[in-house]
Amino acid sequence: MAVKIRLKRMGKIRAPYYRIVVADSRTKRDGKTIEQIGKYHPKSDPSFIEVDSERAQHWLSVGAQPSEPVLAILKRTGDWQKFKGEPAPEPLKTPAPKADKRALFDDALRDAHSEPQGEAVSKKSAARKPKAEDKPADQAEATGESAGTEAAQGESGA
After folding, report:
1. Angle at the Cα of 51 (from 47 to 52), degrees rounded to 5?
2. In this structure, is the dihedral angle defined by the CA atoms of residues 29, 30, 34 and 38, taken in order, positive or negative?
3. What are phi and psi of 18, to 5 degrees?
């Protein structure tokens, strides 16, 4: 019986993740397996790779053949070099630790209670031409707007 170490696909259509499994070479890709020896999540940044090194060494020593993708993963983790007696590769990249949700909430709350830094004017309203009320008094008199508005106010008030 030929034994292979290969990937078993799981997850959703565009969000796959894989289990590194030991299976009979005649079984389906996602069929019955002998043992699960690791996980691989290619969509996360950097890719999440977890391999049980002891079990991988065992299966390689008894003759299990890794598939091409699994061979690449074993080379990244250093298990293949350990099996072949070669020097180990560079360590894997690890994701940056996530920020504490409580600290993020406290920072957002502190920012919300502080005074605003700038004026509350949108870009659209700042780009508009100034209105008649915003014009200086001498410029409004030169155009005759103030006299007309005073007369209109006098008529409506009387």
Report:
1. 160
2. positive
3. -130, 155
Query: Each residue of 17-52: pLDDT tens digit?
Result: 999 999 998 988 888 889 999 999 999 888 889 999
Residues forming beta bridges with residue 9, ordered by sequence position = 18
Q: Hey, what's the torsion of the CAs at 17, 20, 21, 25, to 10 degrees?
A: 90
3-84: CATH class: alpha beta
Q: Which amino acid is at 112?
A: A
Q: Give the Cα separation of 98 and 121 in Å (integer).
A: 34
For residue 21, give both structure tokens: 């499994």
User: What's the predicted TM-score (pTM) here?
Assistant: 0.58
The strand pairing partners of 18, in sequence order, are: 9, 40
**Residue in the structure block whose two tokens are 């409506």:** 156
Q: What is the pLDDT of residues 135-147, one digit of tens each?
A: 565 655 555 555 5
The CA distance from 124 to 115, in Å, is 23
